[in-house]
């Protein structure tokens, strides 16, 4: 297995519902190392850069509105197969379809209010980490 870094982000609905500690705890209990962690609010420009792969899609504007609606908590985690394991832990995008035991299965209210984001590939992890964190903010 390859040691990878990936970005995990608790979205505004997860922060407002006070799920931050519970969600971070799941990744720690799984054995991942937290390499960076911060709470912030996306600017529109940051959000557009973060989600640029979705630009031009019908849901782009509502996605930007939602992610800029309140604070998020972002972290870089590291561990064996971090990208694929984190995606399994969070479950499908639509929380109504996510199995119990996954983060979205346990906490998501809808497809939009699905509590959490995780990078889906090494390329997106690299891009998303660069948008959210400065290099010196990530522990080696």
Describe this structure in words.
By secondary structure, this protein is an alpha+beta fold. It has a single domain (3-134), classed as Nucleoside diphosphate kinase-like domain (Alpha-Beta Plaits), CATH 3.30.70.141. Helix content is 39%, strand content 20%. It is built from seven helices and four strands. The radius of gyration is 14 Å and the shape is globular.
Write the layout of secondary structure elements.
Elements: E1 3-10, H1 12-16, H2 20-29, E2 33-40, H3 44-50, H4 60-67, E3 72-80, H5 82-90, H6 103-107, E4 116-118, H7 122-132
Can I get a quick summary?
This protein has helices at 12-16, 20-29, 44-50, 60-67, 82-90, 103-107, 122-132, and strands at 3-10, 33-40, 72-80, 116-118. The protein has 140 residues and is an alpha+beta fold.
Characteristic terms for this protein:
single chain, globular, Alpha-Beta Plaits, 140 residues
